[in-house]
Write a structure and sequence with these properties.
The chain is globular and about 40 Å long. Strands 1, 2, 3, 4, 5, 6, 7, 8, 9 and 10 form a ten-stranded antiparallel beta sheet that branches. By secondary structure, the protein is an alpha+beta fold. The chain is 16% helix and 41% strand. It has one domain: Regulatory factor, effector binding domain (Multidrug-efflux Transporter 1 Regulator Bmrr, Chain A), CATH 3.20.80.10. This is DNA gyrase inhibitor.
Length: 174
C-alpha cells in the first residue's frame, strides 16, 4: 500500500448520491461491489465520484454495504437505485493506492493513536458506522486496474452531527 495523502481530520459537507445497498458476506464482497458498480453505471446517474460505503461491518458475518455515485442534487429512485446522503461532519481521511485492508488498519490505528472517537455503534449485526467509505478518486469506468486506483478512505468521527442515523446508540472508540 502506498499512502498518497497522510491521515488527517477534515470537515465534509452533506453530499447527495444515487446508490445500491445490499447485504453480503465479507468473503466475495468486492466481487459484489464490482457487480453493483456495473449495475449503477447502466443508469444515467451522472459523472460524480463512485464510492463504496460500509454501513455495518462484521468480518465473520454479513456486511451491509452500498455502492454509490455522488450527484449534484437528490437522485430519484429507479429500481434498486435509491437516493442518499453522505452525511456532513468531521472525518478521519487518507488517500492511498493498493491494499484496502492495510489502509483501513492504518487509518484506524491513526484514529486510536490520536485518541479520536469514531461515529460507530455496537450492534448485534456488527459495527454500525455513521459513515465509513472508500471514494474512488480514479474513475473505475476509465481505469480497470484496481491496483492503480487512488482511493480516499473516510471514517466519520463522533460528535460529527446531532442528526445521526443511529442517534440512540452508544459511541465507542474501537
Amino acid at each position: 500500500m502506498e499512502i498518497i495523502t497522510a491521515p488527517a481530520v477534515v470537515e465534509k459537507p452533506d453530499r447527495h448520491y444515487a446508490g445500491i445497498r445490499v447485504t453480503t458476506p465479507f468473503r466475495g464482497m468486492f466481487a459484489v461491489r464490482d457487480e453493483l458498480m456495473k449495475e449503477l453505471y447502466a443508469y444515467d446517474v451522472g459523472t460524480g465520484r463512485t464510492f463504496f460505503r460500509l454501513h455495518v461491518v462484521d468480518m465473520d458475518g454479513p456486511m451491509d454495504i452500498e455502492v454509490g455515485v455522488v450527484t449534484e442534487r437528490p437522485f430519484p429512485a429507479a429500481g434498486r437505485i435509491r437516493p442518499g446522503v453522505l452525511p456532513a461532519g468531521r472525518y478521519a481521511t487518507m488517500t492511498y493506492v493498493g491494499h484496502g485492508r492495510r489502509a483501513n488498519g492504518t487509518l484506524i490505528d491513526w484514529i486510536r493513536a490520536h485518541e479520536l472517537a469514531m461515529d460507530v455503534a455496537e450492534d448485534p449485526a456488527g459495527d454500525r458506522f455513521g459513515c465509513r467509505y472508500e471514494e474512488y478518486l480514479t474513475d473505475p469506468r476509465t481505469e480497470r486496474m484496481k491496483t492503480r486506483w487512488q482511493i480516499e478512505l473516510g471514517i466519520r468521527l463522533a460528535g460529527a452531527s446531532a442528526d445521526r442515523s443511529h442517534r440512540d446508540s452508544t459511541i465507542r472508540i474501537l
